[in-house]
Amino acid sequence: MSQRKFIVALVCCSLAFSCARQQSAPSQHPASAVASPTPVPQAEGGLATSEPGEIVEAEFKGSTGISERKKGNIKPAILKEVRAGRHQNFDRVVFEFEGDSVPGYRVEYLQKPARDCGPGEVVPITGDRSLLIAILPAQAHSESGVSTISNRHQTPGYPVIKEMKLICDFEAHLEWLMGVGWPSRYRVLELSSPARLVVDVTH
Questions:
Q1: Model confidence pTM above 0.90
Q2: Which residues are registered as beta bridge partners of 130?
Q3: Residues 176, 199: contact at Cβ < 8 Å?
Q4: How far, in Å, CA of 131 to CA of 125, rounded?
Q5: Of all helices (H) and strands (E), which one includes residue 77?
Q6: What is the DSSP letter of 82?
Q7: Right CATH number for 67-202 from 3.90.440.10, 2.60.40.3500, 3.30.420.40, 3.90.550.10?
Q8: Closest to 189 (Cα-Cα) out of 78, 102, 90
Q9: Is residue 187 predicted with pLDDT exceeding 90?
């Protein structure tokens, strides 16, 4: 083979090898890059389910007055979870306790601004009216003073329940302030296994 033919053959082989590398290499074009996974958005307007052990009432009666039940000679119940949910015709807040004993309570619409049980300062709350939920004997902290709930302030922003705040946790006395859009009828339910105090406010 002449030197000229050898050089031509060498150049052709080099070109062929280069083309093969370009075809086998992964494309760096942004359009073909693998996108990182993104969270699937939750469906809006979802309704909460009923609580275990709940007997669904055919009619929401409720009241706008004072609802109270006293329970003495029991140990302070330990609050371990507070959750809110939007239902078909009402908004709900559930106070769940350790064990199977629901403490006493007093629920009422306030006629004047609420004050915390510490410095006694007025507590601002979102909504047209305030619904005070006093629970006793109960506490939201351990014997060493550590909080037993993760969130002492919630803003559900539901049709009726707008905001909730724990404004007192002292000497086995709990007070939650609920800001509502308007003073609707409410009802109180006591459920067991585990112990739960449920407050529903109708739309």
A1: no
A2: 179
A3: no
A4: 10
A5: strand 77-86
A6: E
A7: 2.60.40.3500
A8: 102
A9: yes
